[in-house]
Amino acid sequence: MQTDIDPRHLIGRKAYDRNGTRIGTIDEVYLDDATGVPEWAAIRTGLFSRDAFVPLEPSELIDGALHVPFERSLIKEAPDFGVGRHLSPEQELQLYHHYGLDVGAPPSLPDHDFGKLAGQE
Fold first, then answer.
1. Long-range contact list for 34-41, CB < 8 A, 24+ apart?
2. In Å, how far from its chain's centre is CA 88?
3. How, if at all, do strands 51-55 and 60-62 pair?
4. pTM of the entire structure?
5. How buried is 13 (Cβ within 10 angstroms: 0-12 exposed, 13-18 middle, 19+ buried)?
6. Phi-psi region of 58 (alpha: psi -120 to 50; beta: other; left: phi over 0)
7. Is 99:55 a contact under the CB 8 Å cutoff?
8. CB 38 within 8 A of CB 56
9. 107 DSSP assignment
10. Residues 103, 96: contact at Cβ < 8 Å?
11. pLDDT tens for residues 78-90?
């Protein structure tokens, strides 16, 4: 998704699934803790329904609406963590797995050569 979009401008926009079926309206946008980049959107799936989290990275903003590359049924079955609270890393991992998205392994620490051991010449 375009990273230059102000997340406040996403709230209230309509969201559609991969087939063009309306999912609902974006209620909230969640930013990545480390980068501040919009990462998740909470979409109100109906008048009395809950909010479903969808990843913004594979989604696109087209003609003022968010188009999500997933089926509506998959989105409605996403884990429900409630809105208005911070998503924990574990919750984010559950969401990534739900959508079948690869989550990169944390970067490995560099292998440092600290020289010779004490007492060796």
1. 37/3, 38/1, 38/3, 38/5, 38/7, 38/10, 39/92, 40/87, 40/92, 40/95, 41/10, 41/15, 41/66
2. 12
3. unpaired
4. 0.77
5. middle
6. alpha
7. yes
8. yes
9. P
10. yes
11. 998 988 889 999 9
